[in-house]
């Protein structure tokens, strides 16, 4: 897991390479900003890098006389500082408690350059050049260094190397932005600019003094102590293959985020080709390895016959899909979608529509005679109507059940018959639940079988009358054609249901 995170961070760092820079001051007149109004006659520096905004005026640029190397405010040729960049320091603010004052507030970058020709600086092998261990660099011209190949605090006339310690003051915004290129140490560099003279400076360190001199090519000499510490109004910077100018219009102008040799465009193409493309390729390759491992494990577990069966199933599935067949899962999904589409339509049901399709309860009730009010049983959706006739029939049956029935002996040949009990009251009507199914036609159940009964010596007149009526009705219902008995049940009186609508 840690290796994976490290790889991701490494890739992201490649994407940010050349886009990050040191923290430095901004260009302007507000707090944390610096502004320089430069001219060969008079220069003004406005700095917001201290606790309060500071404005330094009456600054004069000291140039060089080309061919002689003379220095003075009346010369226009810039002074050059050429060599091997060993260390640098950027400032977003200055500490007054550490001793920063005066023109220190106008310095945005300090550099330590070992003096040598530009070609010699380019030929220095990485790792073999001078290395400086910076401990503290609060004062732009007085860095505190420690262990390293060179200790700047100990440079004197007996040293083998010669050094420039420069406090750089940008003359334009483009120069200020281009100074971030000096964040890369151990490279060849040429800084062109003017020394600074101030009428009230006297012999203050950093300002131009009469004992300072330059070569005929206007390269400043390091003096007898082999180190020169001065302020510089920077007008241009030359790097290996790039240039930073005051107006930013050079054909080889260095731009923040530029990459050596291949440039910004080449770096972007390189990152897309090898960064993103390599990541995608590594993902595809790892996926292939995983797939091969899973296939090998499956072959070991299932064997050749199992693998052949799986291949055949895949072929069958492809052929079924090509022929238009659908899987049970797809059919269920389509059914769900279809049901969800039709559900709102089915819920919109007319309130006048009956609960049972094809059944008109009003027409049935209106077709038969009614002697009074009715009683309904059940819910609103499905109900049974009990009329006055059915109520009277129920009372008649109750009365008959209270009287002991006396069976009578029939003189006819015993035969399977169907008996029906009647009373002097109105015909009995059976309660029914109305359903949407059509009424089934009643088939003749055949001649009812006579029951053998025995007489009793005495019975009430009412009971005898009931038995006589039962006996007469049994003889009337005897059919000449006997049929097989289906089941024994009470005969229901036939009624006219011609108006029953389905």
Structure description:
The chain is α+β, with helices and mostly antiparallel strands. It has 8 helices and 15 strands. The strands form 3 sheets. A 5-stranded mixed barrel has the order 6-7-10-12-11. The radius of gyration is 58 Å and the shape is elongated.
Could you provide a short overview of the structure?
This protein has 502 residues and is an alpha+beta fold. The protein has helices at residues 2-16, 118-123, 173-178, 263-322, 328-347, 361-367, 388-402, 461-476; strands at 26-27, 33-37, 43-47, 54-64, 71-72, 79-90, 109-115, 134-136, 144-145, 163-170, 187-198, 227-239, 242-244, 375-378, 383-386.
Question: Would you list the SSEs in sequence order as H and E?
Answer: HEEEEEEEHEEEHEEEHHHEEHH
User: What is the strand arrangement across the widest sheet?
Assistant: 6-7-10-12-11
Radius of gyration: 58 Å
Our estimate of the beta-strand percent is 15-25%
Structural class: alpha+beta
Ranges where pLDDT stays below 50 over 5 or more residues in a row are: 346-351, 404-425, 429-445, 486-490
Helix residue percentage: 25-40%
Q: How many distinct beta strands?
A: 15
Q: pLDDT average, as an integer?
A: 76
Sheet with the most strands? 5 strands, mixed, barrel
Shape: elongated
Total helices: the number is 8
Question: Termini, distance in Å?
Answer: 76 Å
């Amino acid at each position: 897991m840690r290796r994976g995170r490290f790889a991701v961070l490494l890739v992201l760092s490649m994407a940010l390479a050349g886009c990050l820079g040191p923290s430095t001051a901004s260009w302007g007149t507000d707090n944390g900003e610096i502004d320089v109004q430069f001219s060969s006659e008079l220069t003004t520096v406005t700095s917001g890098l201290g606790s309060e905004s500071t404005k330094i005026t009456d600054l004069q640029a000291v140039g060089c006389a080309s061919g002689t190397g003379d220095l003075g405010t009346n010369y226009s040729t810039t002074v050059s500082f050429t060599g091997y960049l060993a260390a640098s320091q950027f400032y977003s603010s200055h500490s007054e408690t550490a001793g920063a004052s005066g023109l220190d507030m106008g310095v945005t970058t300090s550099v330590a350059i070992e003096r040598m020709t530009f070609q010699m600086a380019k030929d220095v092998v990485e790792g073999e050049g001078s290395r400086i261990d910076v401990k503290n660099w609060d004062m732009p011209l007085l860095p505190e260094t420690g262990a390293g190949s060179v200790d700047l605090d100990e440079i004197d006339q007996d040293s083998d190397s010669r050094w420039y310690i420069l406090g750089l003051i940008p003359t334009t915004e483009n120069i200020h932005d281009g100074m971030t290129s000096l964040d890369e140490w151990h490279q060849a560099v040429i800084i062109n600019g003017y020394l600074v003279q101030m009428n009230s400076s006297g012999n203050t360190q950093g300002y131009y003094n009469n004992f300072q001199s330059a070569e005929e090519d206007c390269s400043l000499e390091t003096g007898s102590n082999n180190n020169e510490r001065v302020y510089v109004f920077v007008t241009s910077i030359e790097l290996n293959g790039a240039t930073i100018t005051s107006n930013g219009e050079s054909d080889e102008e260095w731009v923040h985020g530029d990459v050596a040799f291949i440039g910004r465009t080449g770096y972007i193409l390189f990152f897309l080709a090898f960064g993103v493309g390599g990541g995608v390729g590594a993902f595809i390759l790892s996926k292939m390895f995983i797939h091969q491992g899973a296939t090998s494990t499956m072959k070991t577990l299932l064997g050749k016959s199992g693998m052949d069966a799986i291949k055949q199933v895949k072929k069958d599935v492809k052929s079924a899909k090509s022929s238009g067949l659908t899987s049970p899962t797809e059919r269920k999904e389509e059914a769900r979608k279809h049901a969800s589409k039709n559900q709102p339509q089915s819920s919109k049901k007319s309130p006048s529509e009956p609960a049972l399709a094809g059944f008109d309860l009003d027409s049935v009730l209106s077709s038969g005679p009614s002697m009074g009010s009715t009683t309904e049983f059940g819910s609103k959706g499905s109900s049974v109507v009990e009329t006055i006739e059915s109520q009277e029939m129920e009372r008649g049956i109750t009365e008959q059940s209270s009287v002991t029935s006396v069976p009578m002996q029939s003189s006819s040949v015993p035969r399977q018959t169907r008996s029906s009990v009647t009373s002097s009251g109105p015909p009995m009507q059976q309660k029914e639940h109305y359903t949407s199914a059509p009424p089934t036609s009643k088939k003749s159940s055949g001649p009812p079988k006579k029951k053998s009964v025995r007489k009793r010596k005495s019975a009430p007149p009412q009971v005898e009358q009931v038995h006589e009526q039962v006996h007469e009705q049994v003889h009337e219902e005897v059919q000449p054609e006997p049929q097989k008995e289906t089941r024994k049940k009470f005969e229901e009186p036939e009624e006219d249901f011609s108006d029953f609508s389905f």
